[in-house]
Amino acid sequence: MKALAKLKAAPGLEMTDVPLPEVGHNDLLIKIVKTAICGTDIHIWNWDEWSQKTIPVPMHVGHEYVGVVAGMGSEVQGFKIGQRVSGEGHITCGYCRNCRAGRRHLCRNTTGVGVNREGAFAEYLVIPAFNAFPIPDDVSDDLASIFDPFGNAVHTALSFNLVGEDVLITGAGPIGIMAVAIAKHVGARHVVITDVNDYRLDLAKKMGATRAVNVAREDLKAVMQELHMTEGFDVGLEMSGNPQAFRQMLETMNHGGKVALLGIPPSNTAIDWNQVIFKGLEIKGIYGREMFETWYKMVALIQSGLDISPIITHHFKVDEFEQGFAAMLSGQSGKVILDWR
Ligand code: NAD
Ligand code: ZN
């Protein structure tokens, strides 16, 4: 089958031919329909330090997808051939304490589809049936193909009660922008998002941000004054991984504020701990999506009228993958979809 793979330890990805994956007795064989390009795939494309340490070569990558069930192992129940599915990319062990308690997102032995094992940028993908998630008819292929990052946004945004709260989102990447729409949908008052990229800030504005602030030339505290926010933000969602953005968030939080951290900063990032301690901030790290509460919430949010479709800005046939990656690398894109049919 056709697959988009890292064939040598260097930047880029190549279209290649690989054997069909074997289907174990608890596995599902999925025929891929559409995939989306993740920020992680860009790290892998660029072959940065993290990728060099993490990605086996040769291997095909990718973990944002929608497809249809094309086969299944003898033990699999609850799925039908032809059914549309996406899948949770974190494969958990099933035997650690958190897994046994149903807190699969906290599994200490998690491995990643398209990161530690063969991915979804291929005609077929095999995953444990446990990880597959059925897609209802009223959710489009496009939206289903971005459930992985949409799930990051939902998991982070729903970590704290947002009803009537003023929310700061740092980082208008695809995940931060989707978080804007979610926060507004569930009843936040002001949702302010920051970035240094005007294209992305414009998209965030279209998706409901009260203010989209370019911190390279605008003062966040002045924006807060304009909005009559005299005390500070109630909830912060850090979605940039940028240390300066995180520090600015800590400075502008109200006392007793709640902060969820999704962005991945350099491990030696320093902050002013006095902001955390004397403000009594509550800080929560977010990894992936809750299995599978986040997935049910995603469907329910869409079915209750949340529209995240403007985040999808580009479509390409899979053979045009280089254009797709170029769009992502340009910073002038939201989500980029590759069609495998
Ligand atoms: P992205 O890289 O597309 O977006 C990050 C944005 O932050 C960019 O638009 C960038 O311009 C912006 N930024 C840079 N400096 C800034 C500053 N000083 N203030 C505000 N914004 C600034 O990333 P994404 O795909 O949307 O993901 C968001 C973050 O979440 C990334 O750090 C990613 O690595 C991380 N992530 C974490 C998980 C997890 O499970 N914890 C999962 C997926 C992604
Ligand atoms: Zn586990």
Automatic annotation (TrEMBL):
The UniProt annotation places Zn(2+) 2 binding at C93, C96, C99, C107
Reactions catalysed, as given in the entry? L-threonine + NAD(+) = (2S)-2-amino-3-oxobutanoate + NADH + H(+)
Q: In which pathway does it act?
A: Amino-acid degradation; L-threonine degradation via oxydo-reductase pathway; glycine from L-threonine: step 1/2
**Compartments reported by the entry:** Cytoplasm
Q: Where is the active site?
A: T40, H43
| Positions of the record's site feature: Important for catalytic activity for the proton relay mechanism but does not participate directly in the coordination of zinc atom | D148
Q: Does the keyword Zinc apply?
A: yes
Please give the Gene3D superfamilies that the UniProt record associates with this protein. Answer: Medium-chain alcohol dehydrogenases, catalytic domain, NAD(P)-binding Rossmann-like Domain
Q: Where does NAD(+) bind?
A: I175, D195, R200, L262, G263, I264, I286, Y287
Q: Which is an annotated GO molecular function term of this record?
A: L-threonine 3-dehydrogenase activity
Enoyl reductase (ER) domain: which residues? Answer: 2-338
Its primary localisation, in coarse terms, equals: cytoplasm
What does the record note about the cofactor? Answer: Binds 2 Zn(2+) ions per subunit.
Positions that bind Zn(2+) 1: C38, H63, E64
Q: What is its EC number?
A: 1.1.1.103
Q: Which cofactor does it need?
A: Zn(2+)
Please give the family membership noted in the entry: Belongs to the zinc-containing alcohol dehydrogenase family.
Database matches in NCBIfam families: PRK05396.1, tdh
Q: What does this protein do?
A: Catalyzes the NAD(+)-dependent oxidation of L-threonine to 2-amino-3-ketobutyrate.
Its assembly, as annotated, is: Homotetramer.
Protein known as: L-threonine 3-dehydrogenase
